[in-house]
User: Which sequence fits this backbone?
């Protein structure tokens, strides 16, 4: 069993497009499970033509504080919360649930006055796709925290399926959900675009990948929007360079029509297949 995670420091560079394509290509010969770890903005399903799910379950991976006894509090509590969640309004102490991180500090100092309770902060979704493999996805609810822990839950769910290769679509950036996505994976496909911000964010996520000592390769998406910059990234990547994918409006048409890119006549298809072939040989 192998876990391949598709990641990028920057958002919007084509991670989900490539992850969905790799899942479909690998599924021709291997048992696949696809896991959308971008719980803030999940869209792997759309790239696979999925609009509804067989299973939806609300989950709880975070906690919030609330005041249960006003009399046990004093004004010093207003200094306790480093997230500024505790306020006094019209003589009453209140905790803003949108600011509370559930750290529990206020509860330690005022055990009688404050209660910490789990909150349903997200949803776990499963779909058996028409392409013959399961997709596990999730969504962090607006204003909630705990995305990294939701990713943990999704990965646990994905492990329930029998698979040869798990394809994980990571969130952008280098934060909690990204770390939860790449931890324990066998290989990282880093996607970037030929822009200064794309390149800068690629280097940032590489620091995380290096910390976990994971093997990786680099793909430049939309390489032809700036061939000169692509050349720079290609040289920088050296033997880690996996391939490049052209910009093509037909790729956008694919997601608009919920038709996976690899079934389109986009010029990007052959380039994606080349990346897949390299990954297949090393899998
Ligand atoms: S649990 Fe932590 S974050 Fe929430 S109100 Fe108390 S101190 Fe602030």
Assistant:
């Amino acid at each position: 069993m192998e876990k391949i995670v598709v990641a990028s420091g920057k958002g919007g560079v084509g991670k989900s497009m490539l992850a969905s394509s790799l899942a479909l290509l690998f599924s021709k010969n291997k048992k696949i499970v696809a896991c959308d770890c971008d719980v803030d903005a999940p869209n792997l399903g759309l790239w696979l033509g999925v609009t509804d799910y067989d299973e939806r379950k609300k989950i709880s991976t975070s906690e919030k504080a609330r005041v249960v006894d006003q009399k046990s509090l004093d004004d010093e509590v207003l200094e306790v919360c480093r997230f500024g969640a505790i306020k006094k309004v019209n003589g009453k102490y209140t905790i803003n649930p949108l600011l509370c991180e559930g750290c529990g500090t206020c509860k330690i100092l005022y055990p009688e006055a404050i209660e910490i309770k789990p909150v349903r902060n997200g949803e776990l979704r499963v779909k058996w796709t028409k392409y013959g493999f399961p997709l596990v996805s999730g969504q962090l609810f607006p204003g909630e925290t705990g995305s990294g822990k939701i990713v943990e839950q999704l990965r646990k769910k994905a492990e329930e399926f029998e698979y040869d290769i798990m394809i994980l679509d990571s969130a952008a950036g280098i934060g909690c959900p990204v770390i939860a996505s790449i931890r324990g994976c066998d290989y990282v496909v880093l996607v970037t675009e030929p822009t200064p911000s794309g390149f800068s964010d690629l280097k940032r996520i590489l620091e995380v990948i290096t910390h976990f000592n994971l093997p990786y390769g680099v793909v430049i998406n939309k390489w032809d929007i700036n061939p000169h910059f692509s050349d720079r990234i290609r040289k920088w990547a050296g033997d880690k360079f996996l391939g490049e994918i052209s910009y093509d409006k037909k790729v956008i048409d694919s997601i608009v029509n919920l038709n996976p890119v690899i079934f389109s006549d986009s010029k990007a298809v052959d380039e994606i297949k080349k990346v897949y072939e390299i990954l297949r040989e090393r899998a």
Q: What stands out?
A: The chain has a mean pLDDT of 95.
